[in-house]
């Protein structure tokens, strides 16, 4: 792994990988947080999917009294329209794009790569995938929202407009209210993206029913 790339946790299949899922964690977490989810997906024993769980850079987070923690971008305000630090979003999207390109250079086709993200990680996944110049297998956006949705129409790439985007959200989410996720879903569909929307009886987390649906979705987009 190049020293210029984000560090990450990896979970490799028993066979040579022919597909990859890059899964981005939420604020204050790390790649270690979601890595244990792989066996819970109950994928076939002979699956050839490599999972990468990158660690976001450490940075001061304004709403947390400037404490340094792993974050894909700063959150300077809880105001819904200005929650995401745009410069940080752009920087992190570029870092994740470098990870995607590195997997491609290892022999994984772009169209066999899924970009997934939870909360802050989902913001990066949506921002990058809608502007990415190569076709992806799918996008998984969990309990998340969109940075600068008003700019999507002008900045969107058409390459992934028919790529499956699975959006999922907790109905009792108090960290990222469900309406923010649904607004992102509506923005995607209004701009011609192939997004679906599901809700679950949960808070700002992942539940068993959601994991089962994610497993079925992964099997579909990486069939």
TrEMBL record:
- Any matching Pfam family: Abhydrolase_2
Q: Which UniProt keywords apply?
A: Hydrolase
Q: Which residues form the Phospholipase/carboxylesterase/thioesterase domain?
A: 11-220
Q: Which InterPro entries does the record match to this protein?
A: AB_hydrolase_fold (IPR029058), LYPA1-2/EST-like (IPR050565), PLipase/COase/thioEstase (IPR003140)
Question: Does the keyword section mention Cytoplasm?
Answer: no
What Gene3D superfamilies has UniProt attached to this entry? Answer: alpha/beta hydrolase
For molecular function, the Gene Ontology terms on record are: hydrolase activity
Keyword Hydrolase on this protein? yes
Similarity comment: family membership: Belongs to the AB hydrolase superfamily. AB hydrolase 2 family.
Task: Provide the protein name.
Answer: Carboxylesterase
Look up and give the organism this protein is from: Alteromonas halophila
Query: Which taxonomic lineage is given here?
Result: Bacteria, Pseudomonadati, Pseudomonadota, Gammaproteobacteria, Alteromonadales
